[in-house]
Amino acid sequence: MSNIKLFSRKTEKLGEGFSMGVQNILSSFSSFLYEIRFIILFYVIGDWASTVFALPFGEEYNSVPAMILENYGIYHLLLIKVGFIFLLFYLAPVIKVSKYRWAFTKHIIESVGILVTINNLMVIFNGNSLIQAIGLV
Questions:
Q1: H-type helices in 1-137, by residue range?
Q2: DSSP string computed for 15-30
Q3: What pLDDT does 19 receive?
């Protein structure tokens, strides 16, 4: 067998392995997105969308998002939230070592998303936030 045919077969196998690896990652990522659907719904979409609508009625009290909004704009805040999803996907295998740790992490992030979404909706509809109503600010 010539060297060219041997090289060609090795390259085909390498290509198949690469293709299978990409398929595994995409399949894994899509199942991950389903698994964190409530994080996406509340922490990413709910918080971001309600922040967009609440900003004309008040101001951002959290210093990190306030700095991002002031210097870069609202779409960069969304980009950072999407980046957080990718970071969570990268760290998920380490967190998933313990089933309870993964469930706890997901529920904490979901709870934060629900709280900040409710906070922003209260600003829109009541004129003051949940944080103001509790007396923290």
A1: 3-35, 37-38, 47-54, 63-71, 74-95, 99-126, 130-134
A2: HHHHHHHHHHHHHHHH
A3: 61
Q: What is the dihedral of CA 64, 66, 46, 30, to 10 degrees?
A: -40
Burial class (CB in 10 A: 0-12, 13-18, 19+), 80: middle
Q: What is the mean pLDDT of residues 116-121?
A: 91
The answer to whether 64 touches 84, Cβ cutoff 8 Å, is no
For residue 21, give both structure tokens: 């690896």
Read off the amino acid at residue 37: R
How far is it, in rounded angstroms, from Cα 89 to Cα 111?
A: 19
- Give the tens place of pLDDT for each residue, 60-85: 878 889 999 999 999 999 999 999 99
Integer Cα distance of 124 and 60 in angstroms: 13
Structure tokens at 13: 């196998």
